[in-house]
Amino acid sequence: MEEQPFDQEELDLSTSIDMQMGEFRTKNGKLYAVSHGDHSGKGNPEVKYVRFRHRGSQDHEYFLDWHQESQGTRKIIMLLPLLWIAARSPGDLILLVDELDNSLHTQLAKALIQGFLDTCTNRTRAQLIFTTHDLLLMDCNELLRRDEIWITDKSIDGESTLIGLPEYRGIMHDEDIRKSYLEGRFGGIPQLDSFTLEK
After folding, report:
1. pLDDT digits over 17-32, tens only?
2. Exposed e or buried b for every residue in 52-88, given b needs 16+ CB within 10 A?
3. Distance between CA 27 and CA 60 in Å, rounded?
4. Which of 39, 81, 112, 183 is the most buried (most CB within 10 A)?
5. Residue 11's pLDDT is what?
6. What span, in angstroms and rounded, lies between the C-alpha atoms of 190 and 69?
7. CA–CA distance, 113 with 130 (Å, rounded to integer)
8. How far, in Å, CA of 89 to CA of 123, rounded?
9. Dist. CA 151–CA 163, nearest whole Å
């Protein structure tokens, strides 16, 4: 992917998504060397690490390093630049995210998706493709169109099939997609045998 610069004003975490995190910053440090740009040996690698500033009670401020933050916060920090670059890309680009909802509250996952869609312009040719186990993201009226939802169904032999929601016949316009899915109308429901835990 070609590097595209962005600045804090265009990627404002404190206003776009409320994570109660305050702000984050990079600071020169002697951690792991990361080379940016010139890989010919002539460039000077710049070493950086990320610290997060939090504001507690009575305006008390404290900092946390990257490894001290929650997985959800770290995931958002990693995803936001990718989503921003994809949404602003004038060329053909596909961003694949496996288990977008992992470590994220449903509302945060929705905010990421909606933020990507809102950032896209009429010149955007990028696509966001993600997998999820969060059924609350199957909202055809609020977030996604029906033709944007695909269901993975696994056969008894372990073979997976990807089926677009419009391929299922008999779906009413006002049908509750989540309810129908949980009832097994579209497949994709895990086949679980009953089990007990030994004492």
Report:
1. 444 444 444 444 433 3
2. beeeeeeeeeeebeeeebeeebbbbbebbeebbbbbb
3. 21
4. 112
5. 40
6. 33
7. 10
8. 8
9. 5
